[in-house]
Amino acid sequence: MMDTGIHARCALHHPGFALDVDLDLPGRGITAIFGASGSGKTTLLRCIAGLEQPAGEVRVNGEVWQDGSSFTPTHHRSLGYVFQEASLFPHLTVHGNLDYSIKRIASEQRVSLERTLDLLGIDHLMDRKPEGLSGGERQRVAMARALLTSPRLLLMDEPLAALDLPRKQEILPYLERLHDELDIPILYVSHSPDEVARLADHLVVLDAGRVVATGPLVETWARLDLPIRMGEDAGVVLTGMIAERDGAWHLALVRCEGADFWVRDGVHPVGHPVRIRILARDVSIARSHTTDSSILNILSAEVIEVGMEPHPAQAMVKLRIGKSSVLARVTRRSVDALGLVPGTKVFAQIKSVALIA
Q1: How many CB atoms lie within 10 A of CB 350?
Q2: If we measure between CA atoms, which residue out of 8, 20, 344, 346 comes closest to residue 187?
């Protein structure tokens, strides 16, 4: 059991559903709780928050919230909770909603009002009431309200699920800022691979109330034996930094461990850390290098593993490029024709337009 970090051993039984997990999670960064609807994601969050009373233990950075002899009620747990719906007080302005949280603080304020407003970009909204806010603005205010309770742990239960795509894209950069600038661990429930790939450091995969995979995101996301089938979202996440920008063609070179990838240029300067997501459907394999191709990323690789896909025509091939792993979805016919077995030297072909840094 860890003295620091998050320990949750929870067993809870409801008619038709049982949660049985035993987790040791990092005490900083974002841990994504991922799985299909009904897998137990929200129930696990509610157990950690004290909204359900399971058998077991919950400890956060050495502070006991529950064990065999004690149970700390939710309002005495140092946590912030962001739900799918913002649930702001409709009769109060944004300032009034935030002030309500500040007045509830029994300990020293960990994040100031000024910093919270800056992190979430809501200082210009203070005099508005919830009815005058967009969905994305309401959710940012809800996040600010949770932060201003000075939590030791921030719980987010699919905070973007009720938003359309433009509003999601509006909020994601603010979530990245919370990750980068605050030393508060976040448990982030989601069924969206896009959100998980962009935000998470650590991954927990739930299925039918049990943990079927857990570990660092980069390693866990690349497993061929991941019990949750990702379908068209199967792929990997790589971390790197912007090594070069090609202004003439609006491209950027991302340097990962032992591999460089040309991607569409974004807003990040040279030297900025980034992560890229490579979907298996966007990777093809060749036995020889070609120079007369529109594909910019043609990289030496080695076959590590070949796995079966649900459809009998397809296979998933795990490749090593430098120290990084990449997945490629190809036909079984191609596996046979190219002689793809572990140890085979190949070239991975990845379109730059398929990568986003």
Answers
A1: 25
A2: 8
Length, in residues, of the chain: 357
Burial call 8-35: b when 16+ CB within 10 Å, e when fewer = bbbebeeeeeebbbebebebbbbbbbbb
Look at domain 235-354 and name its CATH class.
mainly beta
How far apart are the C-alpha atoms of 311 and 325, rounded to whole Å? Answer: 23
Q: Are 277 and 235 in contact (CB under 8 A)?
A: yes
CA dist., res. 210 & res. 220, Å (int)? 16
Query: What does the pLDDT look like over 138-169, one tens digit per residue?
Result: 999 999 999 998 899 999 999 999 888 888 98
- Give the residues across from 276 on adjacent strands: 238
Q: Which two tokens stand for residue 20?
A: 């049985």
How far is the C-alpha of 173 from the C-alpha of 1, rounded, in Å? 34
Beta carbons of 199 and 275 less than 8 angstroms apart: no
Token output for 85:
């719906």
Q: Measured between alpha carbons, how far is 40 from 208 in angstroms, rounded to an integer? A: 7
In DSSP terms, 86 is beta-bridged to: none
Check residue 254 and give left, alpha or beta (phi > 0: left; psi -120 to 50: alpha).
beta
Q: From CA 157, how far away is CA 153, in angstroms rounded?
A: 13
Q: How far apart are CA 260 and CA 349, in angstroms?
A: 12
Q: Which helix (H) or strand (E) holds 30?
A: strand 30-34
pLDDT, tens digit (0-9, with 9 covering 90-100), for 215-245: 999 999 988 887 676 778 889 999 999 999 9
Six token digits for residue 268: 């990040």
pTM: 0.90
**Fold match flag (6-221 vs 235-354):** no
Best CATH choice for the domain 6-221 from the list 3.40.50.720, 3.40.50.300, 1.20.1440.60, 3.10.105.10: 3.40.50.300
Q: What is the Cα–Cα distance from 255 to 263, expressed in whole angstroms?
A: 11
For residues 78 and 63, give the distance between their C-alpha atoms in angstroms, rounded to a whole number: 10
DSSP code, position 284: E
Q: Is residue 1 pLDDT above 50, yes or no?
A: no
Token digits for 235? 């792929």
Q: Where are the domains of the chain?
A: 6-221, 235-354
The DSSP bridge pattern shows strands 153-157 and 186-190 to be: parallel
